[in-house]
Design a protein that fits this description.
mainly alpha, Arc Repressor Mutant, subunit A, 6 helices, three-stranded antiparallel β-sheet
């Protein structure tokens, strides 16, 4: 499996926050809700490493997704502040997508989750 942390830089560490079990569970639940959706993780992994991809490139890279579903997932991610949509006003229209700094910061967390999943496969 490819490690995602080798593709991007980590963001600087922030101050630790004291969580209770309830606030920690609520925080993780709200974070996981941002990633809900069949194609969001696939889109994230395509954009990691500072890649800027046109809509058509994303569509070709994920052939199983419908155009409508890809648009919906990208719009939700844009609303959540994970993805930036760049519109070039030209003919034909050109729209590109890239991760925001906050979206790029998901890389280490997803890499840790990937390592955790690998531990289960080893057992």
């Amino acid at each position: 499996m490819t490690r995602t942390d080798e593709k991007v830089r980590y963001l600087p560490e922030s101050k630790p926050v004291a969580y209770t079990s309830e606030t920690a569970a609520a925080g993780v639940e709200s974070a996981l809700k941002l990633l809900e959706g069949r194609w969001k993780l696939t889109i994230l992994f395509r954009l990691f490493g500072g890649k800027v991809l046109r809509f058509s490139e994303l569509e070709r890279a994920i052939p199983a997704v419908s155009q409508k579903m890809l648009i919906q997932q990208l719009r939700q991610m844009e609303t959540d502040g994970i993805v930036t949509r760049i519109v070039h006003h030209q003919v034909p229209p050109k729209v590109e997508y890239c991760l925001t700094a906050w979206g790029q910061a998901l890389c280490p967390a997803l890499d840790a989750l990937l390592k955790w999943a690998e531990l289960r496969q080893e057992r």
